[in-house]
Design a protein that fits this description.
The structure is a homotetramer.
Chain A: E1 8-12, H1 25-37, E2 42-45, H2 57-70, E3 75-78, H3 84-96, E4 101-104, H4 113-127, E5 132-136, H5 138-141, H6 147-156, E6 160-165, H7 171-182, E7 189-192, H8 199-205, E8 209-212, H9 218-228, H10 232-249, H11 255-265, H12 283-302
Helix pairs in contact in A: 1-2, 2-3, 3-4, 4-6, 6-7, 9-10, 10-12
């Protein structure tokens, strides 16, 4: 079960589609196996990067079941929804299927501290005993959660056991949260997103790992392995080798298309298809990625990877 | 079937709940009957005011079926969704259940003209032959659709047959659209929302009726009847009698709670309950509404209503 | 000097321009006289409705001096600016010219409670001993100030002596603030804006008056006079007589053009000109206003006004 | 004079302050000399990164005069303002002082294509014969300018001669604009911002140079020199060496503090002070920068730089 000690690499899984937009269950299987092989300690599915909003309720359930039945590592399911009925329905399906917990992002439109706190009180009520991840992603949701608000939610809601951290800038927030737990507040797990763009600094500030969906998911594993072994310089060398690609993926609204292209190039999924209204990549963009990937391979081989 | 000639009063229906948050089907029945009795030419269900986002997919279908099986006037179903799979699934259920058409608001986040046009191209593709209402409600969606963009959508998408007009300010937009159709573009139906706050001016500018959810839905019928009979002064007198209440309902985020309170006070629904995270009304607010309602009755009785 | 006891009608003054966009100082004089004659207890200049952002720094100073040298009632000067240097420079000019205080709206972009509080700490520091009005106008600024944040600013900043209240909905906020001052927090003045749309309810909730810029500024005086005399029914009758016009002015982005048109029709200013990029009114809109004005005169005459 | 052929490296200049917040004119002098020595073909002052909004009108003029009197390369002056009076006043001062042109970002709040086009029509009218840079920076302004809108402005406004490109993602926009000019539309200069994060891809897509304010401004010069010499691999090697720092600077709202810290560490300016309400850096952040700077020096030395 998801709890405050959960850590490591939770890879955000894409949702593979066939060229006609139908779910590609064969690619789901292959992708899960690849993520685990590349070092995932867990998977997070049906997040924003999983195109969750584009699935019907029935499709979401079918994806959850396929993944949990195949996957040998724990699974967290994104259940953000406009209302608590839909959220609760999917959460119950997910837990019944064997998920370790769920993830909730606040809906667009929340503004004041009190509104945000109230929303997560209601969320915790609606989810009952199900442990959940608070997803803090202002660039996508428009909701800005200060450290003091996050701490209040942690204080009030025992089932909030993890922060998916992708505020930007967000390094000081990690430090604030860790200072607070050092001073006695409940210490929850912090896994970091944002495509890994600040992963090394985040770990140094006190994060417990990564939860993101970079197109070369072994990056998180390799960086964390060096970091946890205490070889920070090597962790930086590896991190820097991936940096040009991390940066390229960071283009808002294009990241998922870039990742799916990279995954398809590596044979992890069969097609780079995004569901409408998702944007595809131009030939120029694909060529830019190819150059970056070739240089990345070269630098990694210099590092013995 | 919904088409460009559809007109009159389409009442936006609330979704009644029991005090514990469950759907209140008995109140749905009573409410439908009341709306029709108060002069609705049609109903629109599962709009924003119908708390559509708070229903699970299964609940949405059950509401659609209950309403269409009972209702003696045509029904339009709001099917706005984060993705086309959910939109299509609900649209097909609605049409199968006997709806006359569906209504689609653009998702938050669309910004440029090209993005908006592209979204409705995709919508029309996804809906196939189902006729749809374009809901233009920038205060809620953040999406600003200029008249030229609306006209482009009308030009490109033959199944877009009605505009739910609630841009604010929006009077000049009606005039622009009517000038364009006078000059040869396809003339679609324009029904106006915004709680009726500009209903009289909107009719004078060329609207075909109202589609909104005021707590005293007979207002739209009474104003339109006088207006269509050519008695503009009487239409204004009636309109002005309701104006203090229309204005009170116009408080953003509170309108639905006010309407449900008014409907419950009139016995149209059993409970004023909003689903979480909906806000209830304070005792002071309820008292304010009571005063406005009493003065409204007085002024209407002076008008013989 | 502006303080916590300041109350009554503070009319938000327009800034009159000649048809070529130059400042119209003759109209400034006439307008000031008219506002006072129509019952203003004070004026507020260079607010958003005063097109303050469209004036150069030198023009702002010239307007301040012209108004303060002529005006027989106290003057508050809007000094909101992107930075504290510009704010301080204008504030000092205003106080030197005899203003009673200044008004500050938060800049767009503030989001969390902590950011808002910090901004007003800095504001109070920058203004030194100058008393200021906190302008709370989320529809224009995008900044949502909860009651608890307002109370914190009041607690921390002794020079914050008045709230210009135009949150929407905002009635509960007045009640919350008054409950807090009843319980011992410093009671500041609350004057209400939003074109007067909820003036009567606001007074009943505990406001101290109006600060807004309706095109018939005698409305605020007449409503307050009846209200303060305890004749609430007459206050409502007067309020309702103006309601259709209040509502028409409430169209966002058009309010100032409507007010300037009304003021010019009444001979208060010479020209309805807005500076670019301000929008003018169409012939249809002017005709709509004329009809509303005629009916308004009729209803007021029935009330002996 | 600024025109469509202007190209190369235009460094966005910081505005140095003393610890008490006063302008630091000695540092202005030193900084200008350093920028030119590090390879700037021109400077851009009073941009967003120049804390322009925090200067009073008089201070802005004094900065313009100091820079233009000292600087041996052309100067562009940011003149974005809430109104055209302030914009025109500063533009005239700038041109009188010897600036080569001005830069204008659209005000927050513009939404539809028509609103944006109209704003720049008015801008061009207000500026008369002064050539201007259109600053396209949606992350800061919230205004999304599609390629077709940019092209319409270029078509309608002959004095719009340069695009400061910092849309994000923005690579396809460069390609679209270049395709349009290849097809006959007027070709304007495109200089790229965003801290240089996509500089190499931008040059390959057809940009004419960089206009940004990275803390090691020689980066732009070094990358462009290699690029223009046709040695793309060396350009990439240099670019990648700076990438971890570019990424660190990309933290929104912190970039300027990071740059000023880096400039102060290099002795380019005396103090890293930001004017209130600017945020300073924590000790942890400064240490993170120091580590990145040391590794950057090492990698550059391996490249013979």
């Amino acid at each position: 079960m998801l709890d405050e000690t959960t850590n490591g690499v939770f890879t955000i899984a894409a949702t593979p589609f066939l060229p006609d937009g139908a779910l590609d269950f064969d690619s789901i299987d292959r992708m899960i196996d690849a993520y685990v092989e590349k070092g995932a300690n867990g998977l997070t599915i049906l997040g924003m990067m999983g195109e969750a909003g584009k699935l019907s309720a029935a499709e979401s359930v079918s994806v959850v079941r396929r993944v949990t039945s195949r996957c040998t590592v724990p699974v967290i399911v994104g259940v953000s929804a406009a209302g608590f009925s839909a959220m609760t329905a999917l959460s119950n399906e997910a837990m019944d299927a064997g998920a370790m917990g769920v993830m909730v992002a606040p809906p667009m439109g929340l503004r004041t501290d009190a509104q945000i706190i109230s929303y997560f009180h209601n969320t915790a009520d609606a989810l009952g005993s199900i442990p959940f991840v608070l997803q803090d992603f202002p660039l996508a949701t428009g909701v800005q959660i200060s450290a003091s608000v996050a701490l209040k939610i942690v204080e009030d809601c025992p089932t909030c056991v993890m922060l998916k951290h992708e505020d930007w800038p967000g390094l000081e927030k990690i430090t604030e949260l860790r200072k607070a737990s050092d001073a006695g507040s409940r210490r929850i797990s912090i896994l970091c997103g944002n495509g890994g763009m600040y992963l090394l600094e985040e770990m140094l500030r006190g994060a417990d790992g990564a939860m993101t969906g970079f197109g070369y998911p072994e990056m998180m594993r390799q960086v964390l392995t060096a970091f946890l072994a205490g070889d920070i310089e090597r962790a930086r060398d590896i991190f820097d080798a991936y940096m040009p690609m991390i940066r390229y993926e960071a283009q808002p609204g294009m990241g998922l298309a870039i990742r799916k292209y990279s995954l398809a190039q590596q044979g992890v999924i069969a097609h780079p298809t995004l569901r409408k209204p998702g944007a595809g990549l131009s030939a120029l963009a694909r060529a830019e990625i190819d150059v970056l990937a070739a240089r990345q391979r070269q630098r990694l081989s210099e590092l013995g990877l």
